[in-house]
Amino acid sequence: MSSTPHTAPAPASFAADLRAAHARSVTRRILAGEGAIELTAYRAGETLSSAVHGVSRSGQLVVADIPNLFHSLGGFHTADDIEVRADIVKDSADHSLALRLASLHLLGTLRWCRDTEEVGALGLQGQLADLVHDVGPRVRVGVVSTERILLHDCSGVTPYGAAILAEAAAAAPSTDALHDAVMSTAAETLADVADAVLDDALPGWTERLGVPEDTGLVADPAHCVDVDRHCITLARFTGDQGWVVQVPLPSPPHAPSAQDGVTAWHRLLDSLPTRRITAPQP
Questions:
Q1: Structure confidence by residue, pLDDT tens digits, 100-148
Q2: What is the pLDDT, as a whole number, of residue 277?
Q3: Total-model pTM
Q4: CA torsion angle for 23, 25, 26, 27 (degrees, to 10)?
Q5: Which segment of 135-149, 160-174, 240-254, 267-281 scores lowest on mean pLDDT?
Q6: Minimal CA–CA distance to 180: which of 51, 93, 82?
Q7: What is each CA distance from 268 to 8, 248, 282, in whole angstroms?
Q8: Which residues pair with 207 in a beta bridge?
Q9: How far is CA 276 from the centre of its chain?
Q10: What kind and span of H or E run contains 167?
Q11: How far is CA 247 from the centre of its chain?
Q12: At what angle do helices 260-270 and 187-198 cross, to 10 degrees?
């Protein structure tokens, strides 16, 4: 990082708005099916970790499981409503980095659908619809009702009401092309992006990050932690220091398309100041 910022620091309100927008986006995406879910029937003392999840078109949190000879529903095999805790975890986009991006936690009631008509009435989409289509009636499909959802991430805990489920039901534009573009960017260039935010040469949000004891896991100076259509989240490491860095993508001047994210990423890279020689300072 350079010793003198290239631009005036972004106002605190901008960083707070960026952080809040990304937290809400991550929550919607996790609810919609990203990450791995674990259901605990805490009164029965049993856990179901083989289910998949998503949100129906009507904004209901739906889970599906396929019991077979090697796995049964156990205490979850009941016609009665079940009080459950749901924990959904999502890890870093760069799987070489042993870092958890975020987790969602909620208490609610699980009710299994009684027949295929009930399942059909849910309006399944995404991986849930694919699973039911491919496997058929052997899939157990249920709805989890809840009033409160908690997001846990590097900046703390953010609560959401059940209305966030309706937001998660809306189809989001694909970020596959943007994901590929960021993941194919050299680690040194990702470090330059992170340093520009830490230097206040680019707007963004930063938070201290603990460095794993096994430093072999962070041999590269920077990793992509998350790709969102509005911002990129990076992990920046130097020595025994680490930061989570979020940098917003330049907004397109028209309605966004799948390729606009890639274009915005390249524009951001083109706007980087001259490569810095020294690493970030405490």
A1: 999 999 999 999 999 899 999 999 999 999 999 998 888 999 999 999 9
A2: 43
A3: 0.87
A4: 90
A5: 267-281
A6: 93
A7: 17, 9, 25
A8: 244
A9: 30
A10: helix 163-169
A11: 16
A12: 70
